[in-house]
Amino acid sequence: MGFGMAIKGYLDTHGAFSIGDFERSFPGSQSDRNLLSRAVRRGAVDRPRRGLYVSRSGQFAHRVAEPLDVAAAVDDDAVFCYLTALRLHGVAQDVTYQTHFYTRRDLDRFAYGGQLYVSHRLSGRTVDAERLLAASVSAYQVTTAEQTLVDCLSRPGLAGGPEHLARSVGGFAYLDICKVLGLATAAPRSVLARLGWVLDVKQAGWGVTGAQLAALRDRLGQGPYYFWSSKPPKDSYWVNRWRLYAPSPEQEMASWLSL
Predict the structure, then answer these.
(1) Which of 12, 27, 243, 253 keeps 20 to 30 A from 214, CA to CA?
(2) How much is the CA Rg of the chain, to the nearest whole Å?
(3) 205-252 per-position pLDDT tens digit
(4) Is it true that the peptide bond before 233 is cis, omega within 30 degrees of 0?
């Protein structure tokens, strides 16, 4: 193949890796880095972005790279979020070609293998996360169901829009509502209005108390708030008890959450 057996052995057993990962296995060796560059030129390794490598050797020669592994190689502290968290929790309704993850670094988005990779910098913020097993039987850091709900309601576009958001989060069988409310403590009032409406619709299924809903309503200002868009074409269906404009009739949106 034209590069050393040690390098070939590494490529045969590492699907996605960073230059840092590589240098920890081959410390201080310019010749090994040169061999890696040669492997890239010969098509045995892809380089989706600077410092990131995906093996096309051995068992990986005819296998599509797992997007979660690619993102984790970019940042081994990555926490998967938004659409990707919905997928890992098993509630996402549509197949998506985006991988979203939190990081403490500034990373530009990039595309590879038909997938768009989008990082979201935490900037000192902490998120509630857990390790989940994916279909590949690998474990990944992902926002908890409660954090995922609050995040998706904060940025509905990153959850696939109102309908996909509602149909997906409606699939959560259980949520710790006290934790949800704690995570939303500093959220803008528009997010509280969206959250209040969702918890109102799912009150019976998630065990939301009347006192919890009343406490959320007490935190709202005069409004109005918007579930999706405050710009033309604006949300236009009024939900009075949450001072919220919705993009579709409330009954229709409630049916999305209840499926």
Answers:
(1) 253
(2) 22
(3) 999 999 999 999 999 999 999 999 999 999 999 999 999 999 999 999
(4) yes
